[in-house]
Amino acid sequence: MIGALLIAVILGGSLAYIFWRERARAAKAVKEPAAAGAPSNSLQMQLQAYERLILLTERIALPNLISRINQPGIAGKDMQMMLTHTIRQEFDHNLTQQIYVSTEAWEALRNLKEQNIHIINQVAAILPPEVSGADLNRQLLEMIMQNPKMTLHNVVAEVLSFEAKKLMR
């Protein structure tokens, strides 16, 4: 009986000590700044936001978008709607990321979205109404190939990358 009581007291004391030690460790971790070289939670969130926005930039780049959305046999107007809808949807899906990045970076991304929608609508407007989706895509790609500096895609990706690298220093 005394042996069982002694074991229970030792076990209870050990558990209480372990609990106290872990609680003290957790309190110390909250009070201390992040260890040298280890990114803070907010820094990690910022870097993840830049990562997501670079991915968004790639997803709404017209050549990438066209290759992903391309559907043979679809009408030009339907393709136009699918392309512009997909850009808006991708952008809206990442709206919350703006709180983690600079105003300039967010504006650059918003301008890319608007420019791509504008290009799609402008090219669709100059084509005949009965044009196929494949013809619209071909015209968009030809226009981009003829004037690659016309799109903001690379500039926006560079801005986002530059700002993310600044955070890592």
Per the principal axes of the C-alpha atoms, what is the gross shape?
Answer: elongated
The main β sheet shows up as: none
**DSSP strand count:** 0
Average pLDDT metric: 85
Low-confidence stretches: none
Number of helical elements? 7
What number of domains? 1
**Rg over alpha carbons:** 27 Å
Structural class: mainly alpha
Helix residue percentage? over 70%
Provide the β-strand percentage band: under 5%
What is the H/E order?
HHHHHHH
Compute the separation of the termini in Å.
63 Å
Describe this structure in words.
The chain contains seven helices and no strands. The protein has helices at residues 2-31, 41-60, 62-69, 76-93, 103-126, 133-146, 153-168. It is 77% helix and 0% strand. It has 169 residues and is mostly helical. Helix 2 runs antiparallel to helix 7 (153-168), helix 4 (76-93) runs antiparallel to helix 5 (103-126) and helix 5 (103-126) runs antiparallel to helix 7. It has one domain. The radius of gyration is 27 Å and the shape is elongated. It starts with a helix and ends with a helix.
